[in-house]
Design a protein that fits this description.
349 residues, mainly beta, five-stranded antiparallel beta sheet, 4 helices
């Protein structure tokens, strides 16, 4: 019975980023270039877009917001309110470990040394790397792509594997500390049974890693994330999801990340005790966003307002996850970020 329960939980949790839109992503990826152009829509309200893990890059040069996430697409907007897209922006090597048609999760766009880098999770479902507690684990890993523009096309920086091929990793993000670039990511809980947030130094051109990985914290370190086991006993939740690094105006280093409170998708925050990745990471006792929101990131509007891009989370009548981008105002003037009300488009024209 315990094994059946573990399998059921794994199937639900492991597919949380896929179910709402992966079929659409695969269909869109297989269309001709002309069909893709015909698929593009204009003047789409933000709350009409179904997208998991929404990441918004504010490009000062074009004065345009570029939103990506899971699926391999980019949306564009001049004002955050109305969007044009989706545009397919990824080109992978079909002969590489990713396979012919990898699933693409949790993409981010970062500008670094004059180029645009696309951090994303790729899954090759045709390759099995492990089986743990009855869970079959597919080849899933973080990789970095590069392009000359924020809307691509993005191609692999290198075919080098950034992390161990026998370890499922996901939700990569980017951080530079004292001139050293890092990739942060999660080691998936399905294998280690206690998900982590980790960091690994990168080469200066981001073409590979430049040192050993370091575990920053475990899912079980959090006082707010929890679940019940097969016997109904409350235990720490196993899931780490969507880390994003930030620094407050006072210089305090933090990471927002997402897990679950029973069946409620929830985001919390941890802070380094020395202002560096190498510090001890202290978890806040309470979540920082409302229930059923998660996988957030922070960006500033062209007017200087700090916002959190995050998706809402609900389950429809057919059991599918439906996730829609949302924006919240954030105050980072103190030692801790404070998430405020939803961004009001009417008052911020």
């Amino acid at each position: 019975m315990k094994q059946l329960f573990s399998i059921a939980v794994a199937l639900v949790m492991n597919k949380q980023k896929i179910l709402a839109f992966c079929l659409c992503a695969f269909t869109f990826a297989s269309l001709s270039a002309q069909s893709r152009r015909n698929f593009v829509r204009t003047d789409v309200p933000l709350d009409s877009i179904v997208l998991s893990d929404p990441f918004i890059f504010a490009d000062e040069e074009s004065h345009t917001y570029f939103m990506t996430g899971t699926g391999g697409f980019v949306w564009k907007s001049p004002d955050l309110k109305k969007w044009t897209g989706p545009f397919w922006v990824v080109e992978t090597d079909t002969s590489s470990w990713m396979g012919k048609r990898p699933m693409i999760w949790a993409a981010e766009i970062h500008k670094y040394n004059g180029k645009y880098y696309y951090f994303a999770t790729f899954t090759n479902r045709d390759v099995i790397i492990d089986t743990v507690k009855g869970n079959t684990i597919e080849r899933r890993a973080c990789h970095i792509l590069v392009g000359d523009k924020p809307d691509g096309k993005f191609v692999p920086v290198s075919e080098q594997t950034y992390l161990s091929a026998d370890m499922p990793t996901l939700d990569a993000t980017f951080w530079v500390e004292d001139g050293q670039p890092y990739m942060l990511y999660c080691h998936e809980w399905l294998q280690n049974w206690n998900g982590t947030v980790e960091a690994i130094p990168l080469k200066s051109d981001l073409s590979g890693t430049a040192g050993r990985r370091k575990i920053l914290f475990f899912a079980g370190d959090s006082p707010w994330s929890k679940e019940k086991n097969a016997a109904g006993v409350e235990t720490p939740n196993k899931v780490t999801d969507g880390p994003y690094v930030f620094r407050t105006q006072t210089g305090r280093l933090g990471i927002i990340w997402t897990s679950w409170v029973y069946n409620i998708y929830t985001q919390g925050v941890a802070y380094s005790d020395n202002g560096k990745l190498s510090g001890n990471w202290i978890q806040e006792r309470q979540p920082i966003t409302p229930p059923d929101f998660g996988h957030g990131m922070l960006f500033r509007t062209f007017e200087g307002k700090l916002l959190m891009s995050i998706h809402s989370h609900r389950v429809d009548e057919r059991g599918r996850y439906i996730r829609v981008p949302n924006l919240f105002e954030v105050d980072d003037s103190g030692d801790k970020i404070v998430v405020g009300e939803k961004y009001n488009f009417i008052n911020n024209k």
